[in-house]
Amino acid sequence: PPQTPIRAAMTSIQQLRGDLISSGDQPSTNLATYFKNCTVDPTQDVLKRLETLGHVYSQRFGQAVGPRSTVLGMQRFNLGVRLYYQVMEEMLKMEEQRLSVQNFSKLLNDSTFHSSLLACALEVVMATYGESRYKSGGVDSAETDLCFPWILDVFRLPAFDFYKVIESFIKADHTMNKDIVKHLETCENLIMERIAWRTGSPLFELLKQEHAGGAAEQLETPAS
Amino acid sequence: SHDYHFGLEDHEGISELFDCD
């Protein structure tokens, strides 16, 4: 039978929490092995970054939602970390299969990759709790303060970099329900259509590099 | 099930997107 919006949200939340119970709040044995296989072990940087971003996130969450919500923000963050580790492990397994490598040192020492992945995990958590999806009720409710791209501002993350993880995240998280996938697709479209084109986006540097690289090539003659 | 369009080719993945190929 069709669910009421509240029942659907509660089911979604229960499913997310249930899926993440078995994930620890520390890297699993498999994930720790990927870290150790790196030329430069990223473990300490990962843990330090999580501590810093956890503090930043919960403070900003409290500012957005209300002074007593900092603890709630920390709970959301902790769920996000579990999801982040879980999806990271699955991504690395998929990459290992695709590329036949076990040393992901460059990727796992890239702080933008980690911030993007964590931001995506938190976006999924907040969307599950109904906090970051656009509401038809308008802009007055506190929930809309957490709406995407709020997380990009909190992590000072360029939208273009966040965009890079979305598809791989959806591929790697097999339990995501279609409403959350739809939400990430909405974020993706917003980035492609608008946010990635704002001043200061890394996209412009990439375009410059592509243009400079292609300048020596002959122009294609127009097709007849 | 969802209808998300996966655009990455088989030879493309997170490693290439973060310039780690």
Concise description?
The complex is a heterodimer of chains A (224) and B (21). With 224 residues, chain A is mostly helical.
Number of helices of chain A: 10
Overall average pLDDT of chain B: 85
Work out the oligomeric state of the chains in this entry. Answer: heterodimer
Task: Summarize the main sheet of chain B.
Answer: none
The end-to-end span of chain B amounts to: 31 Å
- SSE pattern of chain A: HHHHHHHHHH
Computed over alpha carbons, the radius of gyration of chain A is 19 Å
SSE pattern of chain B, N- to C-terminal:
H
Instruction: Report the C-alpha radius of gyration of chain B, rounded.
Output: 11 Å
Annotation, overall tally of beta strands of chain A: 0
Low-pLDDT sequence parts of chain B: none
List the helices and strands and how they pair.
The complex is a heterodimer of chains A (224) and B (21).
Chain A: H1 5-21, H2 29-36, H3 43-65, H4 70-99, H5 105-108, H6 111-128, H7 150-155, H8 159-172, H9 178-193, H10 202-214
Helix pairs in contact in A: 3-4, 4-6, 4-8, 6-8, 8-9
Chain B: H1 14-17
